[in-house]
Every structure is written in structure tokens, then in C-alpha cells.
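User: Please predict the structure of the protein below. I'd like the answer in C-alpha cell form so I can feed it into my own downstream comparison script.

Assistant: Understood. Taking the following sequence of 183 residues as input:
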Amino acid sequence: MLIALQKRKENIAEYILYLWQVEDLLRALQFSPEAIYATLVDKVEGADEQQKENIFNWYMQIVELLRKEGKESQGHLEHTLHLIADMHNLHLQLMKLPVGVHYRTTYAALSPELTRLRTIIDKSDISDTELCFRALYAALLYRIKGSGQSVIDDTLAVVSPVIGELAALYGKVERGEINLFED
């Protein structure tokens, strides 16, 4: 919870990927409250009992959402998918507006790779932005497994700069630091 709150403030992309990891971790723990507490809460350094209770409740809220949305075995919470949709809407704006000049240059390097990524990820019905998140998450999982280093490097080299810049711009728009409609 504490990490998620920090990531949400600092970098929307890291926040989304972190929540996807939490979803998979909760699934691996079979949504067991005892396992969640022992694995994810009890070992939080410097947290008092009230903080641990808040952290535990946060994990259990995610469990409840996963169950409510029917995503006990796979899939991602609507919350993160809505954030990705918001980011994709920003992407579409940046592709047209003067403020997106640098972003369009960064995106141009990724554009030829999207067809290859769509084939690998096997998702034709999702936005380019969601496709990039799925590719980043797959690369993260491959890295954890310790396999496919060249695939990971190739994916990260083309996707990370785009999502990194999009996330930075999203944060600036959200904080009111830039106006999309000014030159």
C-alpha cells in the first residue's frame, strides 16, 4: 500500500505495473488472509500495528475487487484499465497537439514494432497504450523467471521510452504543470 501510494504520486506507469504485480501475488497466495498477512504485511519494517492493519485491509480490498470483477484467476482490475485508457486518450491528444512534438518523435521509434508486439501478446482488441503495458509486464515476468533476456532488452528498448514519456506528461497534466492546448 505504501509503495503503491508513492508510485501513484510519482509515476502512473510504475503504479499500474506495481498493481498488476500485486494482483498476481495475491493470486499466488490464493487470496488467503493468513498468507497475505504473513507474506506481505507482517514483514513491513517500521510499521506499527495500526499501519499493518491498514496495509492488510488495502490488500484485502484488492482481493475483494478481484473477486467482484471475476478476475480471480487472470485479468487486471478495471481501475488500472481505466488509468491506461486515460493515458491512451492523452496519447491520442499528444499525437495531434503542438505540445506533443517530442512525444511523437519518441513514439515514431515504437510504431513499427507494434505489429510484432501485437503478434507476441496476441491481443488485437486493445489500444496501443495497453499493448505497451502488457509488453512491459511480460518483460518484467520474463526477467523474474530469468529467461528471454534478448526479448526483454528488445521490448524495453522500444516500449520504455514511450511509456516513460507518456507517464511523465500524464503526471504534468494531472498536476496542472502543462496545458495541452497551449503552444
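That's the full C-alpha cell string. The radius of gyration is 18 Å.
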